[in-house]
Amino acid sequence: MQSAMGSGKLCGDGGFTRRCQQWMEQRFGTVKALLTPSCTASLEMAALLAGYPAGRRSHYAELYLRLYRQRLCAARAKIVFVDIRRDTLNIDETLIEAAITEKTRAIVPVHYAGVACEMDTIMAIASRHNLFVVEDAAQGVMSTYKGRALGTIGHIGCFSFHETKNYTAGGEGGATLINDRQLVERAEIIREKGTNRSQFSAVWWISTPGAISAPAI
After folding, report:
1. Which segments of the protein form a coiled coil according to its record (predicted)?
2. Which domain holds residue 55?
């Protein structure tokens, strides 16, 4: 904390922000990690990356935070609910395929309470139907599925560092894990408010957990 305070760089994308992102990339084996103000912001980024034309659908568990429903609606997606399993409270993978139509764009598995969804089945379904997979791993930081970190199996993973989660940034914070190299450039531009400012040294302000929050992560 003293080092962060003394750096003269208290906003996002300072030295600790970069170190935190690099650590996550190495620890979880993701292509690119980007810190965000919250997991909600990360999920909104994922919705934009999925590229919902008007009326396209997203499937996710009924037991789910209504904030992301709002983000999906903002991205012009139609939400299709899939019931949950009684044993894990995660999305019931056996019910997903029956809910898929020609308008379906994405599957959003939520790893509730750090318990992994059945990702092999979900990814196989997504592959058969050419669907985007966004892992809501808000409660799954450091959890794994068959040896793979949650958030690194789908096209995109979303972490939370809210005070109620396993790991906190001191109140709020999130991260987006990009697991498809083709999405990295678009993800960076979305995160930077529609600009490529990271390519220019004269522009430095980014809305991410700042130099004080990043060391806590």
Report:
1. none
2. 2-216
Identify the CATH number of the domain in which residue 158 sits. 3.40.640.10
Name the token pair of 153.
Answer: 């199996």
Contact status, residue 136 vs residue 111, Cβ threshold 8 Å? yes
Number of domains making up the chain: 1
Q: Is this model's pTM higher than 0.85 or not?
A: no
The H or E element containing residue 144 is strand 144-145
pLDDT tens sequence for the chain (217 residues): 788 778 777 766 778 889 999 999 999 999 999 999 999 899 889 988 887 554 455 555 544 444 455 555 555 667 888 999 999 999 999 999 999 998 888 999 999 999 999 999 999 999 999 999 999 999 999 999 999 999 999 999 999 999 988 888 878 899 999 999 999 999 998 888 676 666 655 555 555 666 666 666 6
Q: What is the DSSP string of 16-71?
A: HHHHHHHHHHHHH--SEEEEES-HHHHHHHHHHHHT--TT-EEEEESS--HHHHHH
Which residue type, as a one-letter code, is found at position 205?
A: W
